Amino acid sequence: MTLLDALPRLVAAMRRQDMRSLSLADGAETLTVRLAAPGTDAPQSEDAPEDAPEDAAVTEVPSPEMGVFRQGNVIAGAVTAGHAGDGAVGARVAAGMILGFVEIGPALLPIVAPRDGVVQAVLAADGAPIGYHAPAFAIRHE
Amino acid sequence: MAEIRTVLIANRGEVALRIARACRLLGLRSVGVYSEADAGLAHLRLVDERICIGPAAASHSYLDGARILRAAALTGADAIHPGYGFLSESADFAAAVERAGLVLVGPSAAIMRMMGDKIAAKRQMRRSGVPCLPGSDGALPDDMAAAQRLCDALGYPLIVKAAGGGGGRGMRVVHRAGALREAVETARQEAGRAFGNASVYAERFLQHPRHVEIQVLADRAGHAVWLGARDCSVQRRHQKLVEEAPPVGIAPGRIAELGAACVRACLDMGYEGAGTFEFLYEDGEFFFIEMNTRLQVEHPVTEMTTGIDIVRAQLRIAAGQPLGLTQADIATRGHAIECRINAEDPLHFVPSPGLVRAWHPPGGPGVRVDTHLHAGYRVPPQYDSLVAKLIVHGADRADALARMRAALDEMAIEGIATTAPFHRRLMETEDFRTGGVGVHYLESLDLETMTPRKDAP
């Protein structure tokens, strides 16, 4: 294991502690990590033009992982796995509510509403593959 | 072995596009995988299905074998083409693909593992009569006195190398007997830390070698052919920048002997797929350094001189089809040169990611551009900086050089710095025009003026 192998964990720990600079030595190797301020991208030769502003009244809810999309079934504020249908569209949801799941082998990861609103669309097909951070639901804000 | 219907392309950039094209040609369904930084990649428009596998960090996307296999299961892929780089030479990944009941486009995990161990690879090569550098023929003994005796008998200068290594780590050149102990100890420490294997071996160190390699194709039924040689001596810090076929000034008969030895080695070990035997060449002698068990960046110069589509051949072999070629069917014609166009500053080779505002590829007879670039594409900072390969083919080397100069002049890219101006200057140097420069050639030059450095060794 080299210092470089530990880099992802070091960077994560630095972010948690709000550290900007760190130097470590291990035998002949020295590693100095300097982090840009949060939200700063790596230097690029030129910035891309800004994307067109999205519909501010709608939030897309991404899948947290790559797997099989399970839509869930929103009934009176409760969602259960394995009950597919378009019933979710039009359902009123609250921040923190589970809208659906992504299935990875035996595990089901919840797809959680980031804010209150009404489910405007289900953007993935139930039982179909869904990509990492691919949009799963659209929520219209109240 | 099951028939191949769907190929997952476990790579990005120009090679992913190259593989997607070959799949189209063969009527195979293809799946593109990409990281969050790569949603705009060109091949994703050409594949039949695409899926985002993870965040921008390669360790959680293209280098994450479990994610690649999950994507294959989700999309119904029955074969995986690893391209080059990333997981293409990981024996552990190859074994995981085999366990999952899928086909890896490449040799078996066992062969990858053997070729990944430099000592085992060299032993295998000697068995098949492939020329190797005189060396310790195994790991140096732990007993330093015994190691010293062995190395003194080999003579100096020699190089101490990590058995499981590459990329210059765990490597020390030793010029005199008194410096051996320190070199071995440092190399062992570095090798242990970098590769988890502290074994090192020693072999003769060549002063001014050229890098010459042989491309092979071998099928499951025990047929193998060699497709000519390439010279990849123009390198900077072990990274190739220019490749050409055939190598200048080496008698075709010598290359043919070497090619025949490589074919023998393929048959002896039961090699399957495309592969490259890499050699150092000095004073008329070839010495094996390693075998790459995958497609190589520079494969197009061989395709241009032989007319054989190496990626299509790889896919056919993986599907269990016979080569359908004998050595007598293979002839090389003319001369091909490839320049790697990297998104890097052309003097210091510092990465230059960013937005490509305009892209005008060159064209015309004998000009090929393998690239995923398009205007509006943003080169991400996370990955290898290769953005295009400019390949030319001419009736002879002078013709190829003229075409390369014209193509480099015609090519225009705005928004990012690339290595194209470096290549344009290189094409004008007398040494490169004459041909046959060694692997240390660029180190000896002041890259601004392309004249010998005053402090050159």
Observed structural traits:
heterodimer, A: 142 residues, mainly beta, 4-stranded antiparallel sheet, 8% helix, 39% strand, B: 457 residues, alpha+beta, 5-stranded parallel sheet
Structural write-up:
The complex is a heterodimer of chains A (142) and B (457). With 142 residues, chain A is mainly beta. Chain A is built from one helix and twelve strands; from the N terminus they run H-E-E-E-E-E-E-E-E-E-E-E-E. Chain A has one helix spanning 7-17; strands at 21-26, 29-34, 58-62, 67-70, 73-75, 78-80, 92-93, 98-104, 107-112, 117-122, 129-130, 135-140. In chain A, a hairpin with a 2-residue loop joins strand 5 (73-75) and strand 6. Chain A is elongated. Chain B is α+β, with helices and mostly antiparallel strands and 457 residues long. Chain B has helices spanning 13-26, 65-75, 91-99, 109-116, 118-127, 144-154, 180-195, 252-269, 299-306, 310-318, 397-410, 420-428, 430-434; strands at 6-9, 29-35, 49-54, 79-81, 103-104, 158-162, 171-174, 200-204, 210-218, 224-236, 239-245, 273-282, 285-292, 335-342, 354-355, 358-360, 367-371, 378-379, 386-394, 412-414, 445-446, 451-452. In chain B, strand 12 and strand 13 (285-292) form a beta hairpin. Chain B is globular, with a radius of gyration of 22 Å. Classes of the chains: A mainly beta (142), B alpha+beta (457). Chain A binds chain B through residues 1-2, 8, 26-29, 42-48, 66-68, 104, 129, 131-134, and chain B through 36, 50-55, 57, 59, 67, 70-71, 74-75, 186, 189-190, 193-194, 196, 352-355, 357, 378, 381, 415-417.
Quote the distance from N terminus to C terminus of chain B: 55 Å
Work out the strand percent of chain A. Answer: 35-45%
* Mean pLDDT over all positions of chain B: 95
Number of helices of chain B: 13
Number of strands of chain A: 12
Major pleated sheet of chain B? 8 strands, antiparallel
How helix-rich are the residues of chain B, as a percent range? 25-40%
Label the overall shape of chain B.
Answer: globular
Radius of gyration of chain A: 20 Å
Helix content of chain A: under 10%
**How large is the count of helical segments of chain A?**
1
Please, what is the oligomeric state? heterodimer
Give unreliable regions of chain A as ranges: 39-43, 45-52, 80-85
Which regions of chain B are unreliable across 5 or more consecutive residues at pLDDT < 50? none
Approximately what portion of the residues of chain B adopt beta-strand conformation? 25-35%
| Radius of gyration over C-alpha positions of chain B, nearest whole angstrom | 22 Å
Keywords (chain B): ATP-binding, Biotin, Fatty acid biosynthesis, Fatty acid metabolism, Ligase, Lipid biosynthesis, Lipid metabolism, Magnesium, Metal-binding, Nucleotide-binding
Subunit structure (chain B): Acetyl-CoA carboxylase is a heterohexamer of biotin carboxyl carrier protein, biotin carboxylase and the two subunits of carboxyl transferase in a 2:2 complex.
GO molecular function (chain B): biotin carboxylase activity
Pathway (chain B): Lipid metabolism; malonyl-CoA biosynthesis; malonyl-CoA from acetyl-CoA: step 1/1
